[in-house]
């Protein structure tokens, strides 16, 4: 039995939070999900960081290990806009 004021409809339960339909789709990149959230009037959920930030040092190190693992064959790492981010010794600039 429900007491007065304790019932919440499913539409109201998520009030104030970002809609799950645009945040859980694995087919959309995080940047695109943030754009959809902003267009719907919500704050972005996914933080974007530059690879140059100190907190990203473990990521940079891991990318370099993977690239070096491809030596002597050339290997490169690119960003979302296809700009060169890192390369191994096999790739000569």
Describe it.
Helices cover 28% and strands 8% of the residues. A hairpin with a 5-residue loop joins strand 1 and strand 2 (84-87). The chain has helices at 10-13, 30-39, 57-68; strands at residues 76-78, 84-87. The protein has 2 domains: 1-48, no CATH class; 54-87, no CATH class. The longest helix is centred in the last third of the chain and has 12 residues, at 57-68. The protein starts with 9 loop residues before the first helix and ends in a 6-residue tail after the last strand. The protein is built from 3 helices and 2 strands; from the N terminus they run H-H-H-E-E. A two-stranded antiparallel ribbon has the order 1-2. The protein is of the alpha+beta class and 93 residues long. The radius of gyration is 21 Å and the shape is elongated.
